[in-house]
Structure formats: C-alpha cells, structure tokens
Design a protein that fits this description.
The protein is an all-alpha fold. The protein has a single domain, classed as Growth Hormone, Chain: A, CATH 1.20.1250. It is built from 21 helices and two strands. The chain is globular. It is a multi-pass membrane protein. InterPro entries: Lfuc_symporter_FucP, MFS, MFS_trans_sf, MFS_TsgA-like. It comes from Pricia mediterranea. This is L-fucose:H+ symporter permease.
Length: about 450
C-alpha cells in the first residue's frame, strides 16, 4: 500500500534548499515587472519613439540569450550552487550600474546595466529551474516546478508596486496640465534638463537598493548547504549532451514553444500601458490593470498546479492557449475598456505555460537537463525581439497609438495580433505533448 502512494512534491531533506531557491523565482519576477513600465517611462523622459523605447526589453531579455549557455557550462562543471552564486553576483552588478548610468544620463548605459543584470537572471533561471526539477521524484517534477514558479508573480507584484509608487508616481515628465495635456514637451531646454536629471534619479534608486538586497541573498545562500538532489553520473561532455538533446523532438519543440510564449507574455505585459494610454489612462493608473493581470496570473498558477493532478498537462496547456487566443481577439477588436479587460484576462491563460513547457521539454533528460535548460532559457530571447516588432507596428504612421487604423482598429489594438500568433504555436505544442509525446 505504501509503495503505491505518490511521492511528496518536496521531501523534508530538500525543504530548506527548495524554499531558498523558490525565493529566487520571486527575485527575478521583481526585476521583470519593475522593468516593464520603464519602456513607457524612458520614452517620455528621453523623448524616444516606440521602437527606440522597446530596446529596454531587447536589452533586458537579450541578456538571457547571451549568458544562458555559459551558465549551463558552469553548472555542469561545478554545481547548481555555484551557478546560483554567479547569477546573484551578476544581478547585483547590473542593478548597481544604474547609479553611473543615471549620473551620465545616457540611455545606452541604462541598456547596458539591464543587459548585465539579465546575465545574472540567465544564470539563475538556467540553474534554478532544473535544480527544482531534480529535488524529488521525476513524476512530481512538473508539479514541483509549477509550485516554485507560483512565487514568481509575488515578486512581480512587488516590482509593480515599486514601479507605481516610487517611480511612475514620482516622474515629473508624466505631469499634465489642467486640461490634461503633457507639460514636459512645452518646457524650456533648461527646465527640461532639470526634470530629466530628477526623473532618471527616480528610476535609479530602486535598482540600486535591489542590488544591495541581492548581495544579501548572495551571502545567505553562500553559507547554506545546498544538496544537489538526485544525482546523475556525468558520462559525457557538454557537446555530447547538446547533440543528444537536439535529437529529441519533444525538447526542440519545447524550445520553440517557450520562445513564442515568452514573446507573447512580454508583449502583453509591456504594451498594456500603451493600450491603456490610448484609452486616456495615464501610466500610474495603468499599473492597476497590470496589478490585476498579475493577480489573475498568480491565481491561475496555483489553480493550474492543482488541476494538473487530474488533467493531462499537455491538454491543459493546449486549452489555455486557445483561451488566450480568444482573449487576444477581444483585445484587438473590442475598442474601449472591454478590450483592456480582455488583455488583462490573457494573464490567466499564461499562468500555466512557462513551467509546463519547461517541465514537458526536460522530462526524462537526466543530467542532459542542465544544458537543455540553457536552451530553454535562451528561448527567453523571444522577449527581446518580439516587443521591438510590436513597437514597430505602433510606430506605423507616427509615435502615437492611433495614427492609423488596421482592420478597422487602432494600430495599438492590431499589434496584439503578434501575441495571438505566439499562442497558436503554444497550442500546437500542447496538442503534440499529449497526443504524440504521451505526456501524463
């Protein structure tokens, strides 16, 4: 009877490491969502067009692509703990670079700081995800990763709170006159320079404090014993592992599904501010809709973790991808507040996707999961170039959000055709997961 019992999601021996590593999921969630509103903030402070401002996300998510594979080499050669410590070190350096970037008032220095910061996030995600998967029985691995990933939106909510209260609420470049018109563009060059200096300092401070906190986490984890969980004998080199994993359709399909999913997520969470602004809602108030999206995302993450006990994970992934397509259609074709509500509801559908794609793609790879994890993290590059594509759509006809109409809707509405296409790719992977790959 005892042998028929399902193994625990996390054993007592691995509980403390699980808690510490799970806290890192919140830590990179914080970085993600304090940065999303910065696209709109930098656009106003530095008077950029939509495409130029979207390079914030290109720098942020490009760092994942650059550093994920080196991170896998470090983890494979040394240990999960070393990978985590390197990641925290790079994270702290990138955050602290915001100080000289603000002093120089240089947009490209800010982009460099974000790029280095995400070197650290690439190490953390490349390390933490397979480490969580290894902390127990393989049959509970995807459920365990969903549980850990459920704490990511808690960090994201904290990042949004800091962005709203300490950044967007304090930016003078976002001030309006009594008629609701922007003041910043009408200022003299001297006054505008003073506002620019003040606003860039406002952006700087939360990142610098974040860097200090990350240093604290580095010291804490450095002094805690971190067992490696289930061990696999390393029978081959890194390149042998890479050759093996790219022969597995299930893994390769997961990389492509992850690339498109991340692109969709970042587009939906970045351009919610522009969508709201086109409806007459300022950035600070638009954060409330981003809050709602993340709360729905958090609820969905816990609910879907529970539902996976009863529903095939591949089938659930497919169904939620189809539901996301439905809400994207609402975002595109419902003009007014209803379209914004549809955009918020997309987040419920996204809640399951990242950890489930990750778990399906890595299941059964053994020690090859370490380099495989790197390629799944590299797929986060979808968050780098897809927002740039959406920014280019927004710049059709000008830098406003309703310069032209496409299919009878403003270009900001039509731009969400890109996430819709991404979710169609995810739906296809979910279908193959339960029909072809035999995912339970």
């Amino acid at each position: 009877m005892k042998n028929n019992q399902k193994p625990p999601v996390v054993s007592k021996k691995m509980l403390l490491p699980f808690v510490l590593i799970t806290s890192l999921f919140a830590l990179w969630g914080f970085a993600n969502d304090i940065t999303n509103p910065m696209v709109s903030a930098f656009k106003k402070i530095l008077e950029l067009n939509n495409t130029q401002a979207s390079w914030v996300q290109a720098a942020f998510y490009g760092g994942y692509f650059t550093m994920a594979l080196p991170a896998a080499f470090v983890v494979k050669k040394y240990s999960y703990k070393i990978g985590i410590l390197v990641g925290l070190g790079l994270y702290a350096i990138g955050a602290l670079l915001f100080y000289p970037a603000a002093a120089m008032e240089n947009y490209f220095f800010f982009l460099l700081a974000l790029y280095v910061l995400t070197f650290g996030l690439a190490f953390l995600e490349t390390t933490a995800n397979p480490y969580i998967l290894s902390m127990g029985a393989e049959e509970t691995a995807t459920q365990r990763l969903n549980l850990a990933q459920a704490f990511n939106p808690l960090g994201a909510l904290s990042g949004l709170f800091v962005a709203q209260v300490f950044i967007l609420g304090a930016l003078q470049s976002d001030d309006l006159d009594a008629e609701g018109n922007a003041i910043y563009g009408t200022l003299s060059e001297t006054a505008k320079a003073a506002v620019k200096t003040s606003d860039l300092s406002v952006i700087r401070d939360p990142y610098v404090w974040l860097g200090v906190f990350v240093i604290f986490m580095f010291v804490l984890i450095a002094f805690v014993r971190m067992p490696e969980g289930k061990k696999y004998r390393d029978v081959s080199g890194m390149w042998d592992s890479i050759r093996r994993i790219f022969k597995k359709e299930r893994f390769v399909g997961g990389v492509f599904a992850q690339l498109f999913y991340i692109g969709a997520q970042i587009m939906c969470w970045t351009y919610i501010y522009q969508y709201a602004e086109n409806l007459g809602i300022n950035n600070q108030d638009a954060v409330n809709y981003a809050y709602a999206a993340l709360i729905i995302f958090l609820i969905g993450r816990f609910l879907c973790t529970y539902l996976m006990k009863f529903i095939n994970s591949g089938k659930l992934l497919m169904l939620l991808a189809f539901l996301a397509i439905f809400f994207c259609l609402g975002t595109i074709f419902i003009q007014g507040i209803g379209g914004l509500y549809s955009l918020v509801l997309v987040s419920f559908c996204m809640s399951l996707m990242f950890p489930t794609i990750y778990g399906i793609a890595l299941t059964g790879l053994g020690d090859d999961a370490k380099p495989a994890s790197a390629f799944l993290v590299m797929a986060i590059v979808g968050g780098a170039f897809m927002p740039v594509l959406q920014g280019m759509v927004l710049d059709i006809g000008g830098s406003a959000y309703d310069d032209v109409r496409i299919l009878g809707v403003p270009e900001v509405n039509f731009s969400f055709m890109l996430p819709l296409i991404c979710f169609a790719v995810v739906a296809g992977y979910g279908y193959r997961a339960f029909k072809v790959y035999g995912v339970r």
